[in-house]
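Limitations

Structures in this collection are predictions, not experimental determinations, and the ligand pose is part of the prediction. Treat each record accordingly. The example that follows, with S-adenosylmethionine as the small molecule, is included so readers can see exactly what is and is not provided: the inputs are given verbatim, and the output is the predicted complex.
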Amino acid sequence: MMSVSLQDFQRKELIKKLIESGIKEKKVLDAINTVKRELFVSPEFKRFAYENNALPISNSQTISQPYTVAFMTEILKVNPGDKILEIGTGSGYQAAILCELGADVYSVERIEQLYKEAGIILKKAGYNVKLKCSDGTKGWKEYAPYDGIIVTAGSPSIPETLVNQLALGGKLVIPVGDKHIQEIWCVTKEKDKKGKDTFTTDKYQYFKFVPLIGDEGWKNA
Ligand code: SAM
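Predicted complex:
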């Protein structure tokens, strides 16, 4: 008989909750069912790893709630081989989910300690993510354009630099609002009949994120 660990069981229970909350895409649910979230949280919070909550990580930041990760990933519509840029590496969990979807993942974090810790955890967990410690509101120009950009911190507006780093058909998924509450926006880059770039913005539900701090985000915490 195959043995099932407590974490395997808790992960399956979490998947049930995500389905009840409206997450539909099987490949997103499968990715969440595969990534060991307990590896990305600090030891004192490991027992809460599969509760559907954000949890603290170092430097007063958070690993996002699993529902938030699932919701934003679903909107991003990742296909295997897509080049995806994440802004706000944090614990590295969202980057691991993107890897499980077969994406080629680039991730930028502004806090050096988190950048270093995420690098160690992702490597240990077997995920190959290209990481950079920098202001992510400026994107990562060297590897642009991206099929998708996901911003995991709340922004006062859409950073123009990020939109300019999207490939044709690419999507930018970003929480936009004030410092207390943000709405998830998805900006899709297309071309009109004359070949001019156009951008369509779809707006989804509200969440609460830590602030996106940088040149094209909030100027301070
Ligand atoms: N995606 C993360 C995960 O899976 O754990 C959650 C990230 S946490 C909600 C948001 C992160 O965005 C924090 O680690 C924060 O330091 C980072 N951040 C805020 N402003 C940033 C910026 N301009 N560039 C890069 N990272 C930024």
